[in-house]
Structures are given as C-alpha cells and as structure tokens.
Amino acid sequence: SERISKYEVLNGVTRRWTKQTVINTLIHEAYVGDLITQKSYTADYLNNIRKKNNGEKAQQYLKDHHPAIISREIFEKTYKILGRSLPECMLQ
C-alpha cells in the first residue's frame, strides 16, 4: 500500500510484488514493528562462518521495537488464514 511504497522509496528498496512476496511481507515480524535478536550467529570468527540459530544462542523477541508498516491485526490474521501458528517467541 501507500505506507509500504513510502518506506521503499525512503530506503531504496526495489522488488517485484508477487503473491509470495506479499505473503512473506505479511508474516515477517519486522513489518509489524517487532524484532527477533540472534537469528544467526558467527560460528567461526576466523573464517567468518555464520550459522542459523537453532537454539544454540539465546534469542529475545522485542515487541514494538520500531514503527510498524502493517497492523498487528493483519499480521495475526495472515497467520490464521495460512493455517500457521505464531512463532512461540511471539506468544510470550
């Protein structure tokens, strides 16, 4: 919508709006204003090897960390429509 377009212009984002792009946007916590820390970590500093964090490192879920682009209501409804559960860290 207009808010997303403004965000993209300000941040130099260019993308094609496919069905999957819209779904990914609507279910990503960053667009609702939240942040999950430590999604990945550096496993080997010497070789700069990064790994996805599958519980090896502590994570924090920071609700309302920054201004939202989509409403929390749309965010949660999208999960329901897709038949998915909200990630556990969001429920705490």
Short overview:
With 92 residues, the chain is α+β, with helices and mostly antiparallel strands. The protein has helices spanning 2-11, 19-27, 72-81, 88-91, and strands spanning 35-36, 40-44, 49-52, 61-62. Strands 1-4 form a two-stranded antiparallel ribbon. A two-stranded antiparallel sheet has the order 2-3.
pLDDT averaged residue by residue: 87
Query: What's the story with the biggest beta sheet?
Result: 2 strands, antiparallel
How many strand elements? 4
Low-confidence stretches: none
General form: globular
Number of helices: 4
Share of helical residues: 25-40%
Distance between the termini: 30 Å
Question: Beta-strand percentage?
Answer: 5-15%
Order of helices and strands: HHEEEEHH
Structural class: alpha+beta
Q: Give the spatial strand order of the biggest sheet.
A: 1-4
User: What is the radius of gyration?
Assistant: 15 Å
If you had to describe this structure to a student in words, what would you say it looks like?
With 92 residues, the protein is α+β, with helices and mostly antiparallel strands. The chain is built from 4 helices and 4 strands, in the order H-H-E-E-E-E-H-H. It has a two-stranded antiparallel sheet with strand order 1-4. The protein is globular. The two termini are 30 Å apart.
What is the topology?
Blueprint (H helix, E strand, L loop, with lengths): L1 H10 L7 H9 L7 E2 L3 E5 L4 E4 L8 E2 L9 H10 L6 H4 L1
Antiparallel strand pairs: 1-4, 2-3
Main attributes of the structure:
single chain, 92 residues, alpha+beta, two-stranded antiparallel ribbon, 4 strands, globular
